[in-house]
Design brief:
Helix content is about 0%, strand content about 55%. It has strands at about 5, 10, 15-25, 30-40, 45-50, 55-60, 65-70, 75-80, 90-100, 105, 110-115. The strands form two sheets. Strands 2, 4, 5, 6, 9, 10 and 11 form a seven-stranded mixed beta sheet that branches. Strands 1-3-8-7 form a four-stranded antiparallel beta sheet, with no helix packed on it. A hairpin with a 4-residue loop joins strand 9 and strand 10.
């Protein structure tokens, strides 16, 4: 299984950015998929997840600003980031977990929020 993340870049505070994660397999096989991020000098943290049943959950710091979604036909999961803040600057990683517990990670895509 391969996860290919894309969409990172430089964005001004208050702006928007959309990240995408393309899976090399049918994403319906995963119990959940999500986005994590890791800022310099900090631990990796959960940003948002979406379960096989479509339930979503978010870190408190991004609730109301970020939205996770999926396109089962295209085997992609996206993260729409709105009203971004400098503290959102981090490498963002796509993640998937099978019902067996097997976890997969994509490569990071860097998001920099700066004026």
């Amino acid at each position: 299984v391969q996860l290919q993340a894309s969409g990172g870049g430089l964005v001004q505070p208050g702006g928007s950015l959309r990240l995408s994660c393309a899976a090399s397999t049918n994403i319906f096989r995963f119990n959940e998929m999500g986005w994590y991020r890791q800022a310099p000098g900090k631990q990796r943290e959960l940003v948002a997840i979406i379960t096989r049943g479509g339930t979503t959950d978010y870190a408190d710091s991004v609730k109301g600003r970020f939205t996770i979604s999926r396109d089962i036909g295209k085997n992609t999961v996206s993260l729409q980031m709105n009203i971004v803040r400098p503290e959102d600057t981090a490498a963002y990683y796509c993640n998937s977990q099978e019902i067996t517990g097997q976890i997969y990670w994509g490569q990071g895509t860097l998001v920099t929020v700066s004026s």
